[in-house]
Amino acid sequence: MSVLVQSEHGCVLDSRSLIDQGFTRCLRWKDGQRSHVQCRFKGQWFQMCRSHEAAAVDAGHVEVLQKANKPAKKRKRKHSELNQGEIDSQIFHEKIRSVVSEGTKSLLDSSRSLGFLNGATDTVKEPLPVHECRLAALCEMAKELPLVDDEEQEHVQALVTEDGCTSHVDLFSRVTENRADGATVVTLMGEEYVIPPHASFLLSDFTRIQPLVHYGRKFDLIVMDPPWENKSVKRCRRYSSLPSSQLKRLPIPLLTSTNCLVVTWVTNRPSHLRFVREELYPHWGLEVVAQWLWVKVTTSGQFVFPLDSPHKKPYEVLVLGRYRPSAGHSPSSSETSEVPVEDSRLIVSVPSALHSQKPSLSEVLQRYVGADASCLELFARSLQPGWTSWGNEVLKFQHTSYFTLTPADDRADIPKDEDKPTVTL
């Protein structure tokens, strides 16, 4: 299990273990030949041993030495007054501070008593890959192709043919399904990707999302991490952002089953949080049922940023809502027996060094939607076993450069790693 500890405060996750689920044994197709391999996500991505503050202090010592002999420059006076956004952020932080502080301490104490988050790291020190993701650019190119009449278009396709061929796969206008019971390593657009078992995906942007609607599935759980607009995104240009108002165009009501649980990752900008709670969810017919916090810690259990830092906070917000049908709908017995979602829960984990990679919520949310729930991730950058995923970089973190692939004996069963026990307190 990847949920290491559970209590009334929330849970502690092993994010890497969540990714590795379903990859113990993979079938690899290359040049028409197949072989068996074991796949594991590279653990170095989750080796945050020290907080950003400690790392900055060390870097600062070097900077101080470099500047020691330089003449002092006259600095411009900075304005001390806070703007309205900063004031709102401060108010929000004070409101949740005790929940984060006390809940995280309790969960970390339990984790350490069981041997987790004690500072231990992998001994593997091989360099991390530098992979240039070209998927968003390819989506832009695909938009130049003419749209096919919906009545003529097949909206679903298999990932691999019986002879292992993937060259026929149209990733941009059809939902692609891995129908195998195990993971599959395939070559797509000249690059190798690891596709989890029974995963489905559509590689497209906002303008070509219709195949997902025509896919015919109604989802019991939808998780999304929108590319929110903010200053840091504009400065670094790592990905394109989306104006909040454009999110209303997502066809959520067409994708949801009754009582579908919708979970949205929100930045710590109060205006984004207000927008989701007061505009976006009501627009889609969703009722806000809870607000959770993802708390990011190092491998030794320290906050990745000081809790009271005026700039970066060691947490992010998740808003959970239930889809409520229109008036006049008569709910079935299964619809009226939904599991209530607790408010102010914490999800504690070591974050990935990969920009904007969030922990999987599949195990955490299972009790609220059921083990057989149909699940969808929007704005995804990776895939999950049994889930449907959509986004213009939906395969990004499935590239084989992020994994360690080990040849396996085709005839032997590969023993699974022992599951870590889930401890409920």
Automatic annotation (TrEMBL):
GO BP terms: namely: methylation
Highest taxon in the source lineage: Eukaryota
How is this protein annotated for GO cellular component? cytosol; nucleus
- Which Pfam families does the UniProt record give? MT-A70
Q: Which GO terms describe its molecular function?
A: nucleic acid binding; RNA methyltransferase activity; site-specific DNA-methyltransferase (adenine-specific) activity
Family under the similarity heading: Belongs to the MT-A70-like family.
Query: What is the protein's given name?
Result: Methyltransferase like 4
